[in-house]
Design brief:
The complex is a heterotrimer of chains A (about 350), B (about 290) and C (about 270).
Chain A (H helix, E strand, L loop, with lengths): L2 H4 E12 L2 E12 L3 E5 L6 H9 L6 E6 L2 E2 L10 E4 L11 H11 L4 H14 L16 H14 L4 E5 L7 H18 L2 E6 L2 H7 L2 E6 L2 E6 L1 H6 L4 H5 L5 E7 L4 E4 L5 E3 L9 E6 L5 E2 L8 E13 L2 E8 L5 E7 L11 E6 L5 E3 L2
Parallel strand pairs in A: 3-8, 3-9, 6-7, 7-8
Antiparallel strand pairs in A: 1-2, 1-4, 4-5, 9-10, 11-12, 11-14, 12-13, 14-20, 15-19, 16-17, 16-19, 17-18
Helix pairs in contact in A: 3-4, 3-5, 4-5
Chain B lengths: L1 H11 L2 H27 L16 H8 L2 H33 L3 H10 L6 H12 L4 H9 L11 H25 L3 H9 L4 H29 L3 H5 L8 H9 L5 H25 L2 H5 L3
Helix pairs in contact in B: 2-13, 4-5, 4-8, 4-10, 8-10, 9-10, 10-13, 12-13
Chain C lengths: L1 H36 L16 H8 L1 H34 L5 H9 L6 H14 L6 H25 L3 H9 L4 H30 L2 H6 L6 H10 L5 H31 L3
Helix pairs in contact in C: 1-11, 3-6, 3-8, 6-8, 7-8, 8-11, 10-11
The chains are: A alpha+beta (about 350), B mainly alpha (about 290), C mainly alpha (about 270).
C-alpha cells in the first residue's frame, strides 16, 4: 500500500509512558480511509492504551497523531471526529434504546423529530425492530446491546470508529454472527473501522489488515492471509491457536533439523542468517495414514487420543521418539479410521512448513 | 524544591483529589481542629479557660486519683453487655435477611432503618411511657393479671435495654453484609464433606462473616461507650456513665481542662479500637466493590 | 432427608417469628407516644381513661412551639443543602476515582461517624468559643454537618461504587462537554444516591439531640426542648410534639419511597 497516498489516520512515533513503564513505544502506523484495521495483542501489550490515545481519552507523551493531515494530539475526545464502542458498551442505563442512539445528535443540537427519524433508520440498518425505540436498554439481550452501541456510535457519524473488544463477553456462536454483521456494516457504511482484540481468529474474519502488538510495539502488519501464512516470529505464530511447534536449527539449504529428535525437514525458504528457531505446522496441514505416505516430510507415531469436532476429527499422536505430541486434524470425509493405539505415519507438504526466528 | 512543587501540583490536579478537597477541608476544620483543641486543653491548669498557659499534667493525675474509674467501669461494662446481647438478638435476623427472606429483605431493611430517622430522645421517651409506674406495661399487667410491674424504670437493666434498643440497627446491618458475603456453595460443600450444622456454623459461617461481626460489634461498643441520653432518660441517676461526667465537667463544673482529659481518654480508648479495626478491613470491598 | 428438611423449615419459621417480634419491639415506643398524645390526663396512665385532641390544638396555637419547629426546620434544611453539595464531591473522591491518599481520606471521612456525638458536641463548643463565635442555630448547622456529611458521603458512595466510569467517557467521546456529561449522565444515574443522601441528611439533622445540645446556644431545636421537658417540667406537649415530628418524618419517608419507586420503574421500563 502506498503510504502517503492512502494516509487517513497517521501515527508518527506515538509514545505513552506511565512513570517508568512504556505502554506504547514509538509506534508508526498508517491507516487508509475505509479500511477495517485490527490490532491484535495479548493483555498488557498496549493495545487498549493505544486506542485510548487515538480517541483522546489519554494524551500521548510523545509523537504525533494526524487525521486527514490535521494534528489530533491536543484535540480533546469530545472535539475529535472519532468515536469508540467500549468493551462493556457503556450504554446509558437510565435512557431508552432510542435515547441512547440519539444521544450524540441531542448533544449536537439536532431537532427531536430529526433525531427520532435518524434513530429509527439506524435501528433498521442494524436489524433491530423499530419498536425497540422506547425499550429500556437493560431489557435487551447481549447481541441487541451490541447493535445499540454500534448504532449510537454511527449516529455520531465519526470519521473513524474504534472498537475495544466489544464482542469478548459474548458466547461463541453469537460472536461469530456479530463478527460477520460488523463486516457487513463496515461495507455498507464505508467508514474506517479500527478494532482491537486478543483473538487473531476474530481479526481474520473481519479485517482488511491486521497489526500484531507486543510490549507497546507493532511487530507485524499485513493482510490476514499474509499474517497467517508468514508469521514474522514465534510470538505472532502463537496467536494462531493450537499449532505443532518444533525447536529446530539450520541444517543446510532449505533444510532444518529437529533438535530433540534429530529428524530433518524441508522448508520453503530459509530467512537470511537463520540459525535456530521454531518450525510450525498447523494441525490441518498434517496428513495422517495412507495420504501421508508420499509426502516429503514424515514422522512416525502412535495415536493417543481422538476427538470428534463436528466437521473435523482431531488426533493426538505421540511421536515414535516420545518427545512430541502432534495435533492432527482431518475432515470427516478424508479416508482414515484410526483409533487410539494405532501406529501411524504423519506427513506434510514442504509449503506448509512455517519457519520463524525468535 | 521546584520538582517537589510540580509533583504536588500534578497530584492536586487529579479529579479525585479535587473532589476530596472541600469535604476534607471541612472535616479538618470541623473535626480535627476541635479535637486537637480538646487535646490542648487537657494540659492546661484546672478551671482555666485559656489555651496559652504553662502545660501541666495535673488534670491527668487528678483523674486517676478521683473516682472517675467508676464511670469508666460502668461505661465499659454496659457497652460490653450491650454488644453481647445485640449479637444474639441480631444474628438470626441478619441471617434471615441475607439468606432466607429474599425480596422481603428490602422491606425489612427499610422498617429497621426508619426509627433511626426519629430522634433518639423521642424513642427513649416512648419507652419511659411503656415502663413507667401506671405506664403501658404496668397498667396492662394490673388490668389483666392484677399485679404491678413498676420499678423497672431507672435501673441499670433499663439503661442496657435502651442501649440495645437504640443501637440495634448498627449491629444488624454490618452483620447482614458480613453474612451475605458467605457464598452458599461453601456451606453446601462443607456439609457435603460431612460437617454437622454446628460445625458448618463454627468452621465456615462464623469466620467468613467475621468482618461484619467485628464492624457491628465495635460500632455498637463505641457508640454505647459514648452514649448520654440512655442513662439520663431511662437510667435516672442510677449510674453515671462517662459521657455524663464529661458533660458536667464542661457545663456545671466549668472545668474545661478536666472535661478535656476525660474526653481525651474516651477518644483514645475508642480511637484505638477503631484504628485496629480499620487496619484489618478493606473498606472498598465491604462498601461496594465486590 | 425428610427430617432434615422439616428441621430447616422449623428453623426458617423461628427466624421469621423472631424477626417479626424484633420489628414490633422497634415500633412500641412510637405507638406509646401517639397513645400518650391523645390522653386527656396531665400525667400519662394506662389504660387511658379519657381521650382528647386538645393537645394538638394547643400545640398548633403555641408560638413557642412554632418557633421550635421553625428553628429545627431551618437547621435541617441548611444542613441538607450544604451536606449534599459537599458529600456529592466527597463521594466521588471516596468511591469513583483512584488517587494517592484515598485510603487516608476514607478513614478521615469515617472517623466522625464512629465518634461519640456528645463529646464531639462539647469539643465543637470549645472550638466555637475559642474562635470567638457566639453559638446559635447557625453554629448548630455547622456542628450537625460534621457528623452528617460523612454519613451522606457513605450513603452516596454505595451508589457511586456501582457507577461505571466508562459511561462518562462514552458520553464525552460522543461529543458532550464536561457539563453535558454531568447533566446527561452522571447526575441522572447518581440521582437515587443523591436523593437518599439528602433525605438522610434532613432527618438526621431534624432528630439530632447530642450535637444540638451544645451548639445551639440560646436557640432551641425540637429534640432539645423535648429533652428539657422530659427531665423537668413534663407537659403533655412532649408526646404531642413527638408525634408531630414523627408524622413529619413518616410523610417525608413515604414521599421518598414514592420517588424511589418512580425512578426505579423508569430505569427498568419495558
Amino acid at each position: 500500500m502506498d503510504e502517503t497516498q492512502g494516509a487517513f489516520l497517521e501515527l508518527r512515533k506515538v509514545t505513552k509512558k506511565f512513570g517508568n513503564f512504556t505502554a506504547v513505544d514509538e509506534v508508526d502506523l498508517v491507516i487508509a480511509e475505509g479500511e477495517f484495521f485490527t490490532l491484535v495483542g495479548p493483555s498488557g501489550s498496549g493495545k487498549t492504551t493505544m486506542i485510548r490515545l487515538l480517541v483522546g481519552m489519554d494524551q500521548p507523551t510523545g509523537g504525533d497523531i494526524n487525521l486527514k493531515g490535521v494534528r489530533l494530539n491536543d484535540v480533546p475526545a469530545n472535539k475529535r471526529p472519532t468515536c469508540m464502542v467500549f468493551q462493556d458498551l457503556a450504554l446509558f442505563p437510565h435512557k431508552s434504546v432510542g435515547e441512547n442512539i440519539e444521544f450524540p445528535l441531542k448533544i449536537s443540537g439536532v431537532a427531536p423529530d430529526k433525531r427520532r427519524q435518524r434513530a429509527e433508520q439506524l435501528l433498521k440498518q442494524l436489524r433491530l425492530p423499530v419498536d425497540y425505540y422506547s425499550k429500556g436498554v437493560n431489557q435487551c439481550s447481549g447481541g441487541e446491546r451490541q447493535r445499540i452501541a454500534l448504532a449510537r456510535a454511527l449516529a455520531f457519524d465519526p470519521d473513524i470508529l474504534f472498537f475495544d473488544e466489544p464482542l469478548s463477553a459474548l458466547d461463541f456462536r453469537l460472536r461469530k454472527t456479530l463478527e460477520k454483521e460488523l463486516k457487513d456494516i463496515h461495507r455498507e457504511t464505508g467508514k474506517t473501522f479500527v478494532y482491537i482484540t486478543h483473538s487473531l481468529e476474530e481479526a481474520m474474519v473481519m479485517s482488511d489488515r491486521i497489526g500484531i502488538m507486543r510490549d507497546g510495539k507493532i511487530v507485524q502488519i499485513g493482510t490476514p492471509a499474509a499474517i497467517y501464512n508468514d508469521p514474522i516470529n514465534r510470538f505472532v505464530a502463537q496467536f494462531m491457536g493450537e499449532v505443532n511447534t518444533l525447536e529446530v536449527e539450520s541444517a543446510g539449504k532449505n533444510t532444518v533439523q529437529d533438535i530433540a529428535s534429530g529428524a530433518r525437514f524441508k522448508v520453503r525458504a530459509m530467512p537470511d542468517g537463520f540459525t535456530k528457531g521454531a518450525l510450525i505446522i498447523r494441525p490441518e496441514s498434517v496428513k495422517i495414514g495412507q495420504s501421508a505416505a508420499k509426502l516429503p516430510n514424515r514422522v512416525k507415531g502412535t495415536v493417543y487420543n481422538d476427538y470428534a469436532l463436528g466437521s473435523r476429527v482431531q488426533y493426538q499422536v505421540r511421536s515414535e521418539t516420545g518427545d512430541m505430541q502432534w495435533l492432527v486434524e482431518r475432515l470427516q470425509d478424508e479416508p482414515f479410521d484410526g483409533k487410539a493405539g494405532d501406529k501411524v505415519t504423519l506427513g506434510w507438504q514442504t509449503e506448509d512448513s512455517i519457519l520463524v526466528g525468535d | 524544591m521546584q520538582g517537589q512543587a510540580n509533583r504536588f501540583l500534578s497530584w492536586l490536579r487529579q479529579p479525585g483529589v479535587l473532589n476530596a478537597v472541600p469535604a476534607s477541608l471541612f472535616l479538618l476544620i470541623g473535626f480535627a481542629g476541635p479535637l486537637l483543641m480538646v487535646f490542648g486543653y487537657s494540659f492546661m491548669p484546672p478551671k482555666t479557660f485559656s489555651l496559652f498557659q504553662e502545660p501541666t499534667l495535673a488534670n491527668y493525675s487528678s483523674v486517676v486519683s478521683d473516682s472517675y474509674y467508676i464511670s469508666f467501669f460502668w461505661s465499659l461494662t454496659l457497652a460490653a453487655a450491650t454488644v453481647v446481647i445485640l449479637f444474639f438478638i441480631c444474628y438470626p435476623i441478619a441471617y434471615g435477611m441475607a439468606k432466607v427472606f429474599g425480596k422481603w429483605a428490602n422491606l425489612i431493611t427499610v422498617l429497621i432503618a426508619v426509627p433511626l430517622l426519629i430522634s433518639e430522645n423521642i424513642r427513649l421517651f416512648g419507652w419511659v411511657l411503656v415502663l413507667l409506674k401506671n405506664g403501658i406495661l404496668d397498667g396492662s399487667l394490673q388490668a389483666v393479671f392484677g399485679f404491678s410491674a413498676s420499678g423497672m424504670l431507672y435501673t441499670v437493666p433499663a439503661i442496657v435495654f435502651g442501649l440495645v434498643y437504640v443501637y440495634l440497627p448498627f449491629m444488624l446491618f454490618p452483620l447482614v453484609i458480613g453474612i451475605s458475603m458467605i457464598p452458599d456453595t461453601l456451606k453446601e460443600a462443607a456439609s457435603d464433606l460431612g460437617a454437622s450444622r454446628w460445625e458448618v456454623f463454627r468452621e465456615v459461617e462464623l469466620p467468613l462473616a467475621m468482618p461484619g461481626i467485628m464492624i457491628g460489634g465495635i460500632l455498637t461498643f463505641i457508640l454505647s461507650l459514648g452514649s448520654l441520653a440512655e442513662s439520663k432518660i431511662l437510667g435516672g441517676q442510677t449510674v453515671v456513665m462517662i459521657a455524663d461526667d464529661i458533660e458536667s465537667a464542661f457545663t456545671f463544673a466549668q472545668n474545661w481542662p478536666k472535661g478535656s482529659v476525660l474526653s481525651v481518654l474516651l477518644i483514645a480508648l475508642s480511637g484505638t479500637i477503631v484504628i485496629l479495626l480499620f487496619r484489618r478491613i478493606d473498606l472498598d470491598r465491604i462498601i461496594g466493590r465486590r | 432427608m425428610a427430617t432434615a428438611k422439616a428441621k430447616s423449615r422449623v428453623a426458617r419459621n423461628l427466624i421469621v417469628l423472631w424477626t417479626v417480634c424484633v420489628l414490633a419491639f422497634l415500633y412500641i415506643p412510637m405507638v406509646a407516644i401517639v397513645l400518650a398524645s391523645f390522653s386527656k390526663a396531665r400525667y400519662f396512665r394506662f389504660p387511658v381513661p379519657r381521650w382528647t385532641t386538645q393537645w394538638y390544638d394547643k400545640a398548633m396555637d403555641s408560638l413557642s412551639i412554632r418557633d421550635l419547629l421553625w428553628t429545627s426546620l431551618s437547621v435541617a434544611t441548611l444542613v441538607t443543602v450544604f451536606s449534599v453539595a459537599l458529600a456529592f464531591m466527597g463521594a466521588l473522591a471516596f468511591a469513583r476515582y483512584d488517587w494517592k491518599g484515598r485510603k487516608l481520606y476514607q478513614r478521615l471521612v469515617l472517623l466522625p461517624i464512629f465518634f461519640p456525638q456528645a463529646v464531639l458536641g462539647l469539643a465543637l463548643l470549645l472550638w466555637f468559643s475559642a474562635l470567638g463565635i457566639t453559638t446559635s442555630w447557625h453554629t448548630a448547622v455547622f456542628a450537625h454537618m460534621v457528623w452528617i456529611v460523612p454519613i451522606v458521603i457513605l450513603i452516596m458512595s454505595i451508589q457511586v461504587y456501582s457507577f461505571d466510569p466508562s459511561l462518562e467517557e462514552a458520553a464525552y467521546d460522543l461529543g458532550a462537554s464536561r457539563f453535558q456529561v454531568l447533566r446527561e449522565v452522571t447526575l441522572p444515574i447518581l440521582a437515587p444516591g443523591v436523593i437518599s443522601g439528602g433525605i438522610f441528611a434532613f432527618l438526621l439533622s431534624w432528630g439530632n439531640f447530642p450535637l444540638s445540645l451544645f451548639s445551639t446556644g440560646a436557640d432551641q431545636t425540637v429534640p432539645e426542648w423535648l429533652y428539657s421537658k422530659m427531665v423537668m417540667g413534663y407537659t403533655p406537649m412532649v408526646p404531642t410534639l413527638g408525634s408531630l415530628t414523627m408524622s413529619g418524618a413518616a410523610i417525608l419517608i413515604f414521599l421518598f419511597y414514592m420517588v424511589w419507586m418512580i425512578i426505579k420503574s423508569r430505569q427498568s421500563r419495558a
